[in-house]
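Readers of this paper often ask what the protein records in our data store actually look like. This encoding replaces a full spatial description with a residue-level series of whole-number codes. For reference, a complete record is included directly beneath this paragraph.
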Amino acid sequence: MKQLNLVLLWHMHQPDYRDYVTKEFVLPWVYLHAIKDYTDMAYHLEMHPQTKAVINFVPVLLDQLEDFTEQFSTKQMRSPLLRLLAAPELEHITMQDRLYVFDSCFLSNHETMLKPYPAYKRLHELYTILNKRGERELTYFSGQYLADLLVWYHLAWMGESVRRNNEFVMKLMAKSEGFTHADRLQLFNLIGELIQKLIPRYRKLAESGQIELSTTPHYHPLAPLMIDFSSARDSQPDVTLPAHTIYPGGRGRVAFHLSSAIASHTQRFNEKPTGIWPAEGAVSTALLKILAEQNCQWSASGEGVLVNSLRAAYPDTPLPDRNSYLYHPYRIAGETEQITCFFRDDQLSDLIGFEYSRWFGRDAAENFIQSLEHIYHNTPAEENPVVSVILDGENAWESYPYNGFYFLDDLYSLLDNHPFIRTTTYRDYVASAENRDKIMTLPTLAAGSWVYGTFSTWIGDKEKNYAWDMLCAAKHSFDLVMQSGRLTDEEKVLASRQLASCESSDWFWWFGDYNPAHSVASFDQLFRKNLINLYLLLKLPAPATVLEPISKGDVQTEASGTMRRSS
């Protein structure tokens, strides 16, 4: 009987928010997403053991989760917001700490995470009134106001599965105000428990065979560009590239990120990853060769990459209906044929990422199933299509009521009982001898990412190119110092780790006037701070250019910018 194979790949990632000199976490997003999204995603899978999925953990995220686990174990907190949550006396904290609380504790989707809670909404209204009068007025807020604000911010970021099942959280939400230090301390400890249990929960799901755990090169580098900037011209022939023609030693750096990721994954989950989701789904033939050298069996990218590749391979042939080419696995002709490549259904993935948050959960889940049934009925009778739905496992849910609880619960329930839609994993799919015969050959691979099928989100405009040039200059200095013998082995390790953080794709994502100014400022500052720290570890003075902001963003843009449509 014909069946449709559905692969849900949930990509879990946050860039490295640690300042390697001060050891502080500059931004709180790792632990906030941990208690909300990573916790909820594990819960839904645990409640639906018949549903299979691929969970992709970027190693730098796991590094930070383990860092938080250690902090809670030792009670030596390096996250300012968590320190303040547990602080015994908030009445007399410094003005700098007050401003940090105010700047931090209203950062969320207000429609879904603030307005539904009257007490939290009232705290925001009071802040808005006094803030309009100037910074000095903020000194009038009492310690009790600060305590309530800190508690409500963390309650708003709490996973829906926790809110529904943890009696203490229920009591806090019912209490709504006047939170004591004991309340804050218990909430602080709960956050620690949730984080400490995360990796074991996913390890257990993997050991049962319900999920496949995959990985990404360690610090999430935009690998094809690090190997060769000109790969951007596969999809954008006229793109303007950085002044530096190539990233120094880029191929070796990509190999380092990949081998480090495989070692990290093996150590944490007791097995090597079968497949690699490259950062941003960014692929090129050169990258696939490196993956092949590490015995990778599968990789994946976006639909736009497949479309560009087919057009490059068959320039005189009109592109057929997407049902005839999208729902197949592919091998790329040449040296990388051992790797099976899958391409995401951009339309279905974007429905979850951007549209369904405005629907009733059940209606959205049923619409998704109907879309899969349409694919099933419009592909040849002798084929078992494989549909890849790939997106962030954290950022979308902030726009959903109840953190997407009803949508995910209804979706998994419908999939559990469907007569011909079967959830599977890439590892299970490629392991089947029957499926191996269905893999098609793609004559050429046009380099690109899951966003537009291009690299335009990370290279090509003035600000992004300038950031690449700054990184290239820092890498040149790094190479010279490493060869000079001036650093001890320990100092070399620290400098190499700092460089790896500088190479993350996330910094380049945020540069540009289409992103909100407050987010751009945070990531711009963090990128430049990473470069400054790198020069410090190399025992070199930082260039003056590193001290000046690269990008300002747009003060009129309010969208978070953490996600982007694929087309």
